[in-house]
Amino acid sequence: MEEDDVQRAVRRIAHEIVERNKGAAELVLVGIRTRGVPLSNRIATAIREIEGVEVPVGRLDITLYRDDLHTLEQPVVRETYLPPDIDGRQVVIVDDVLFTGRSVRAAMDAIIDFGRPASIQLAVLVDRGHRELPIRADYVGKNVPTSREEEVKVALREVDGEDGVFIGYQG
Amino acid sequence: MASLPDLLIRGARVVDPFRGTDEGMDLLVSRGRVAELGKGIPAEGREVIDAEGMIVAPGFLDIHVHLREPGREDEETLESGLAAALRGGFTAVCCMPNTDPPLDNAALVEEMALKAAKLGLADLFIVGCVTRGRQGRELAEMGLMHLSRARVRAFSDDGDGIEDAGLMRRALEYVSGFGGVIVSHPEDRGLSRGGQVNEGEVSFALGLRGIPALAEEVMVARDLLLAGETGARLHLAHLSTARSLHMVREAKSRGLRVTAEATPHHLVLSERDIRDYDTVYKVNPPLRTPEDVRELRQALTDGTVDAIATDHAPHAPEEKEREFEYAPFGVVGMESAFPVLYTELVERGELPLMRLLDLLTRGPAEVMGLQAPEYGGGIEVGCRADLVLLETGREWVMDAGAFASKGRNCPFHGRKVKGRVAFTLKNGRVAFAAAGRGGEGVG
Amino acid sequence: MAVKGHLLDVDDLRREDLERILETARSFSEVLRRPIKKVPSLRGKTVVNLFYEPSTRTRLSFEVAAKRLSADVLNFTASASSVEKGESLKDTALTLRAMGVDAVIIRHPVAGAPCLLRRWLDVTVINAGDGMHAHPTQALLDLFTMRERLGDMEGATIAYVGDILHSRVARSGMKACRAAGMRVVAVAPPTLMPPAVPDYVEVSHSFDAVIPRCDVIYMLRIQKERQQEARFPSLEEYARLYQLDKERLRKAKPGVVVMHPGPMNRGVEISSEVADAPHAAITAQVSAGVAVRMAVLFLLLGGGEGGGVLA
């Protein structure tokens, strides 16, 4: 995916979110650190352009909820911010890549600790398959069939200085 | 003993601090005594120890050991302690009376002396209590202990200082009547109470209460004044601070009849060696500063210190393997003394071999007023063959696990040393032979 | 069971470890403001509170911290006197090892006990205060509290006031403050000053002379036993010379932060008005305690096997 493809995908996801939720009034976007955060901001901007509504955006660090902590050399816990009172809202988790589904599971657990949303939905820029949990995305920018060994890397201007999706082999 | 074959020690370097001689020769041991000294003594029909490269010296005398009998036979017995002595090259030791019950009466010291004699290991000289029950209140029957078959001539409440200056004065006066010695454990409890290590940087860093140098010095000063006044024989045990040594040096220069001892651990270790709250470094007096260690070594050279004594203090492992504050003070020392002292002092050129051996033989004998045939006199034809054969030059590793002592609380365990006791002869018999020298253990 | 290193004193920590703990603690202070103040990070881990000294505050703080990380917490409390007669520390260590716990938090009246425990036990050991030696989590939470109040601490001046000699809080605290680039002053009568303070600590016997230049005034608890040891003649005299009261506080900088490790002797080392004044960060210290201890537990127990997050 090139820069334009990324931006188009963001706009399309924004449209779908608004459509599915019949407007943006009850929406809350929550980006999973690191790249889910700028993505959620972009989606919020797109929704404002479409609907003229300011959607609250949160950022979530899922380190404390991960089930693979023991595999990390040095776990780093970053700030989490969720908009106050998510009870009864439509919460959309935003992440860059959907792979095994474990990050999303952790994010859902975290969000539920903050309140009781009416629903939790999932938006990702890339779905690369190979799920290990019964999780699927509600909004997908692009399906990228990969082998397990391949590495999918999403680059975003805010973090990496450029936009794009790259596929390579580990090592 | 007559059945023993003659033993020829061939080609040894015979160093005799009593006579001040140091020469290479053969030495023939027969019927428990030195029968002949000279070069080229024929070997036929005799057992031979090839002592080429070894040093032969009079067996050592340790004037400060704790043998724990009676009362704590789980920690040491006369048998294990006197075997440890032989293993360390000591053919005679003086044991301190802080046992349970304390050695404060003629009957008890006599019983202990006879028991030790029957063992046929190292010779035992008993130090009796100064005060009854070591309570620091009334004098023990020192005269009767002296007249007993134990022939006690030195008295001490070691483990505790005698707090009451008046009582200390009377003790000094009283023993001067029969030529006795008072061995002072210089420690003012008012200054040392609750202390665990030397007071200063290290006590602060470890968060342990300190024992100030002053705790020792205050009592050294007092005892020197009292000794000066009474003219009695005072011996100061385990000195550890520079200022104590200055005071002793000054007193000696005035002609005072005072003697002093230093321990191997205070000569080799400082407070900076205390690591990880390892209680093996917990001793009283505490390990002091590197400056104190330097002064102590200087005092060996200039004669301020008369004797090296180990303050051998075995403790049960379960008592030592615990929180620093709860563990008892003390290290075992007899079996590590020579190797460690040789390595740290002689090998490094800080002290001549002759002086080290002097501090382990003639010096301590003088402190205790011991003379041949009880102990000492040097190596000459007709003397009792209580000898030590020393090996130097190769590297060994100190292994407390191999000690004959029941104590394992040795701060030198695992240390590389360059000297060791190869053989100890007691009454002409090989009482100890090191590993690789025809055995390991007491024969 | 991953051994992730230990926390026995502040000097176990490199500067970057210190920063990491404070940063992580900040994240946890956010967790503590959530409606559900519990995260699953240490699920399945077992942490033992081994307390040989009665200290409800520290024990509870560690217990809450561990529970908010979803660890299982076992409390073992014993009075030192009964322990001296009963099971030895070594045997207790062997028992804990056999039970397969992941970390032991130890409070002990005698210096060095955590160090011995580390030798006998192959799991994470955290020192919750040992004798007069060290109290690293207190030092960390104090640093955290100061940073929240002062921002950058580089060059700021802290005065520790009171029984420096017997205080593990001061011993660890002074090291931590130094690591954070602060100037450290120790204020006490000569009888409550250690025999040798490190070079970086300025010594003063006059509280009044030091007050005006302090950014932080750290009052230490004074124990009545010290009077029996002839460290000072009476609590009244001590209070006159070393109590932080309204009069003295008036001479301090307006933004001065007043701290105390608790429990306070109101009317002895600190007056009630000062303890309750807005300058006092004493309750902030208590809440920082949970966040900082969560951070320490998380960093020591949360990561992978083999690699120690903390030195």
Provide a short characterization of the protein structure.
The complex is a heterotrimer of chains A (171), B (443) and C (311). Chain B is an alpha/beta fold and 443 residues long.
Give the overall pLDDT of chain B as a whole number: 95
Computed Rg of chain B: 21 Å
- The portion of residues forming beta strands of chain B comes to 15-25%
CATH superfamily caption of the largest domain in chain C: Aspartate/ornithine carbamoyltransferase
Global shape of chain B: globular
Question: Can you walk me through this structure?
Answer:
The complex is a heterotrimer of chains A (171), B (443) and C (311). Chain A has a single domain (3-169), classed as Rossmann fold, CATH 3.40.50.2020. The mean pLDDT of chain A is 92. Chain A has 171 residues and is α/β, with parallel strands linked by helices. Chain A has helices spanning 3-20, 36-51, 102-114, 157-160, and strands at residues 27-32, 57-60, 90-98, 119-127, 139-143, 150-155, 164-169. The longest helix of chain A is centred in the first third of the chain and has 18 residues, at 3-20. Chain B has two domains: 7-56 and 380-442, Urease, subunit C, domain 1, CATH 2.30.40.10; 59-368, TIM Barrel (Alpha-Beta Barrel), CATH 3.20.20.140. In chain C, the strands form two sheets. Chain C has a five-stranded parallel β-sheet with strand order 7-6-5-8-9. In chain C, helix 4 (89-99) packs across helix 5 (113-120) and helix 6 (136-150) crosses helix 13 (282-301). The radius of gyration of chain C is 19 Å and the shape is globular. Chains in contact: A-C, B-C. The A-C interface holds A 61, 63-66, 69-81, 109-110, 113-115 and C 2, 20, 23-24, 26-28, 30-31, 34-36, 38-41, 69, 295, 298-299, 302-305, 307, 309.
